[in-house]
Design goal:
About 45% of the residues lie in helices and about 30% in strands. It contains eight helices and eight strands; from the N terminus they run βαββαββαββαβαααα. Strands 4-5-3-2-6-7-1-8 form an eight-stranded antiparallel sheet, with helices on both faces. Strand 4 and strand 5 form a beta hairpin. Helix 1 packs across helix 2, helix 6 crosses helix 8 and helix 7 crosses helix 8.
């Protein structure tokens, strides 16, 4: 019996998202939220753009030859919500929707590759999809899971959480990640706390102010994601309770 498969794909290919991030210094995440409109030669995407200096990345996007139009809907120093109209034949997403497979939004671009979750109806269709992509994309299947019958919204939420966590993780520098992991392992976030910033800094071999700054920046990037997951999970639980 054929069973649907949840596949997480990483792909490196000629892409305005990947190339614009590289032009802007390699730091940043582009999160594709949804497609608005398609024509024969263009596709409009709603996307969240996050970078230490988002204007630099937006400028690189505007200059990319495959980007026909970019409209900024809202913006802060490190974040922008945008509409991007681009050449349709440059998107991996467009290849996937031409098959029996279903791409799940959001998609993520960062760290030199695109990440996208896809529900594929069978092993045969997975082989077909891979064959369709492999000539033009450097494709890596990061995870494959056979699915039992579940509500589509539950699949979408679970994949969204996983991919978004990876995207948030990519925004942390190695030193920020190490500071957060050390603080967690040593009980800094416990109640009551089992250690202090001074003790953590000493263990890390850095000044207290430097360690505090790394930890503060890590928290600023991770906590909004945790709050978003809690909010969406609570909304889904209320929805399930009302059914």
């Amino acid at each position: 019996m054929n069973r649907p498969i949840l596949v997480e794909i990483d792909a490196v290919h000629p892409c305005w998202c990947i190339e614009s991030i590289e032009k802007a210094g390699g730091e940043g995440i582009i999160k594709g939220l949804s497609g608005l409109h398609e024509t024969r030669d263009s596709h409009t995407l709603v996307a969240e753009v996050t970078a230490p200096e988002v204007d630099r990345l937006l400028s690189a996007l505007r200059r990319h030859p495959w980007v026909k139009q970019l409209d900024v809907l809202s913006k802060t120093r490190e974040y922008a919500l945008v509409n991007v109209r681009s050449k349709v034949d440059k998107l991996m997403y467009e290849r996937i929707v031409g098959t029996r497979s279903t791409p799940l939004m959001p998609s993520y671009t960062g760290g030199g590759h695109d990440s996208l979750a896809v529900i594929v109806p069978s092993d045969n269709e997975l082989r077909r999809l891979y064959s369709l992509l492999k000539d033009d994309f450097e494709v890596k299947v990061r995870r494959k899971k056979y699915l039992e019958p579940v509500k589509p919204v539950e699949v979408s939420l679970n994949v969204s959480y996983f991919l978004e966590f990876r995207a948030v993780r990519d925004l942390l520098s190695q030193k920020q990640l190490e500071a957060f992991v050390l603080a967690s392992e040593k009980g800094y976030f416990s109640l009551p706390k089992r250690t202090s910033i001074e003790e953590l800094a000493a263990q890390a071999g850095v000044h207290t102010s430097a360690f505090s700054e790394r930890l503060r920046k890590a928290e600023a990037k991770l906590i909004p994601f945790i709050a978003q997951v809690m909010k969406q999970t609570n909304a889904q639980n209320k929805h399930n309770d009302n059914e």
